[in-house]
Amino acid sequence: MICPFCNANDDKVIDSRPTEGGAVIRRRRVCLKCDRRFSTYERVEQASRLMVVKKDGSRVPFNTENIIRGVSNACGKRPIAEDIKRNLAEQVEEELHSEFEREVPSATIGERVMAKLRHVDKIAYIRFATEHLQLSTLEEIQRELDDLSQRPTEGPDQTSLFDPKSSPH
After folding, report:
1. Choosing a second label site near 4 at 20 to 30 A (CA), which of 14, 23, 37, 62?
2. The whole model's pTM is what?
3. Domain spans in the chain, listed from the N-terminal domain onward
4. Quick one: average pLDDT of 113-140?
5. Contact 88, 119 (CB under 8 A)
């Protein structure tokens, strides 16, 4: 960094700490030429904004808070810690940003959330799936319950045997 006092480009970081909930890193620096101290702030630059393509074709900016709200509604009064819900939403966001450049269908987001909720809490999963899949009859809900109970639950770090991306070859 260029020193704001003497314009030298020779400094040393003497302290780093997260601020704004970890979204920003504050660094204390000392100029090795004039020995004065200054602070810099480092944050992630949102170069391209991910847009969500809704079912009706409209587009809205991606917002992690919408995922957290949906997961919280599905969890209701279930004993699920807030940090687990937030972590789930952040994992989905990370996956989407790494896989999609500009646009992502809302259905894809819902399916990612469902897959993760399935490992967190089966009741929350069914609540979310009922809304996301628009299950409107008892028979449809029963089919989803049957599928949930018959399909083995994979661990969150377990790779699928049939997923070509997880193949070691």
Report:
1. 23
2. 0.59
3. 11-43, 51-156
4. 89
5. no
